[in-house]
Amino acid sequence: MIADNIKAIQEEIGNAKLVVVSKNRTIEELNKVYEAGHRDFGENRVQHLLERHDSLPEDINWHMIGHLQTNKVKMIAPFISLIHSVDSLKLLNEINKQAAKHDRVIPVLFQLHLGAEESKFGLSEDQLPELIKKVSSEKANYGHIDINGLMGMASNTDNKEQVRSEFRHLRDLFDTIKADFGTKWPNFQILSMGMSGDYREAILEKSNMVRIGSAIFSTN
Ligand SMILES: *Cc1c(COP(=O)(O)O)cnc(C)c1O
Fold this sequence. Notes:
By secondary structure, this protein is of the alpha/beta class.
C-alpha cells in the first residue's frame, strides 16, 4: 500500500528528503500520497505539473525533475518549489526573469550529466564550474534564483559498483563546489540523487534528496 511504502522508504533513507514522483499516476493515487501526509511531489513534464497543481491541494511542494524548455518556464514560475534540472545559462536566465515577474526567488539545482546513457540532458563537468563561477560573480543580476545544489542520474545498470561510483563522483563534485561557492550560495545544500532502482546506493553516497516513483506505487 502507498502509505506503507512511503513509510518504509522514509525509514530506509533516514534524514534524506523523499520526493514522490507522480508521473503516470492517477489523481486518486496522488491523493493517497497526500493523505499519508506527504507534501513533496515531482513531475518531469510541465503539462502534468500544471494539471496536477490545479487538481491537488495548495500546500504541495512541486518539484520539476525533467528537462525544462525555456519557453515553458513562465507556466510553472508562479508556484514551482524547486527546479532540479537546470542545464544551461539560458534556462537559468529565463527562470530568473520569470521569477522576477512573480516577485519570487526560485530555488534551483544544476543537473549533471553522469554516465547515464538514457539521459542526454545535463551539464558536463567542464561546463558546471564555469557556469557557477559566472553566476556567482554576477550575483546581483540573479536575485530571483537561489542555487540549492546538484541533481544527477546514474546509469541504468545492474552493476551496483558502477552506480555507486557515479554517485560518489557527483557527491565529490558537490563537496568541491560547496567548498568554493558555499559562502555565496548558503543554501547550496541539496544533493538530489537516487530513484526506485538505485536509492540505496545513492544514500550510501550521501544523497540527501531522492526522487522515487515506481517503488511507492507498486502494490506487491
Ligand atoms: C521518473 C523519474 C524518477 C523516478 O523514477 P522511478 O524509477 O519510478 O522511481 C526520478 N527522477 C527522474 C528525473 C525521473 O524522470
